[in-house]
Give the backbone structure.
Amino acid sequence: MKLMPCPLNGSRNIQEFVCGGEVQKLPADNAPNREWADYTFQRENAAGVVREWWMHVPSSYWFIAERDTRTDEILKTYGVEDLT
């Protein structure tokens, strides 16, 4: 069983989580529709360490995880308040 270290609930079964995609900078409010479409639907899908949004479904708690996409290893998790 694979465990995810949740900043709020501690280590939990990975099946209790969903990935919300890569952490990206929001486009400006007045950005063209094409830029918003790219933000919503396009992903870089880089090989290596990426920052991703994850949610613990039973508690609806969103947080950030740093994961190596080459090995699927979760390196670090932290709350949104620590996002820089």
Notes: The chain has a mean pLDDT of 95.
